[in-house]
Design brief:
Order of helices and strands: EEEEHEEEEEHEHHEHHEE
Number of helices: 6
Number of strands: 13
Helix content: 25-40%
Protein name: Transposase
Strand content: 15-25%
Largest sheet: 4 strands, antiparallel
CATH architecture of the largest domain: 3-Layer(aba) Sandwich
Number of domains: 2
CATH topology of the largest domain: Trna Endonuclease, Chain: A, domain 1
Strand order of the largest sheet: 2-1-6-7
InterPro entries: TnsA-like, TnsA_N
Radius of gyration: 21 Å
Structural class: alpha+beta
């Protein structure tokens, strides 16, 4: 158990005092300070404050997601969290991601200490930040809502967005999960990538463009990587298929 891994106890009522955060820097050093003094910390680079353990018979499914955005592994504690870290990795506006980035501490209305570790911290390319909690709608208890509301209040104080996310769109997850298999930069093979970008200057069905470039077994992995990296884009929200209309994307 990490030194910063604490029990999330106490009555989670509205906060009555200032927020504090505790986090683990990339070099392993630990810090705890007022949130107002920590808003400039690059939380997208910190180490997790909780461990991702696995054991026989456990109900949740933890693991590690290799992030193309971060260039390393990001931990998750459930399939829901895995889907959302995958979608963060796919988002072209996101430039940094960390999981279990910090402990947030405050006092409840009754003066009892409360703590909460959000699931993710993400940095966007414009410098803004978003703090994310993942919880299925049917599993949000009153105690959880109080913590989520307090976390949102804390984020508002330092100009971060807070998102409470449930199950994402299943078609989007299906498409991105497929493309994620080709997220590693090794799949951007030249000159095939350049030929595909030239071919799809005018939108056309996916397989028609692939066949115009070469053998599908060699071309499709490159196409899927270009869709992952948003150099190409496919029509949505239908499942990706041979007749999906593909065009140039937002990143080139």
């Amino acid at each position: 158990m990490h030194a910063l891994e604490v029990l999330e106890g106490g009555s989670a009522g509205p906060p009555t005092a200032g927020f504090e955060v505790a986090y683990v820097a990339p070099d392993g050093s630990e810090s705890r300070r007022l949130l107002a003094d920590a808003w400039a910390v690059r939380f997208e680079h910190v180490a997790p404050v909780r461990t991702f353990t696995s054991y026989r018979g456990q109900r949740n499914l933890p693991g590690l997601w290799w992030s193309a955005t971060a260039g390393g592994h990001i931990g998750y504690e459930s399939w829901l969290e895995r889907d959302h870290v995958m979608l963060l990795d796919f988002d072209p506006a996101v430039v940094g991601i960390s999981s279990q980035p910090f402990w947030l501490f405050w006092s409840s209305a009754k003066g009892k200490p409360v703590s909460h570790a959000p699931d993710y911290f993400a940095r966007r390319d414009d410098g803004s930040a978003v703090v994310i909690d993942c919880r299925p709608a049917e599993r949000r208890r009153a105690r959880d809502w109080a913590k989520f509301e307090a976390t949102k209040t804390a984020c508002d104080q330092v100009g971060w967005e807070f998102r409470l996310l449930g199950a994402p769109d299943p078609v989007l997850v299906r498409n991105v999960r497929w493309l994620a298999g080709y997220r590693h930069p090794r799949h951007r093979v030249e000159p095939v990538a350049s030929w595909l970008l030239e071919t799809f200057v005018e939108p056309m069905p996916l397989m028609d463009g692939v066949l115009a470039v070469g053998e599908p077994v060699a071309v499709l992995p490159v196409l899927f990587h270009l869709l992952w990296s948003h150099e190409l884009a496919a029509d949505a929200p239908v499942p990706l298929h041979a007749d999906s209309l593909v065009s140039l994307g937002m990143v080139r």
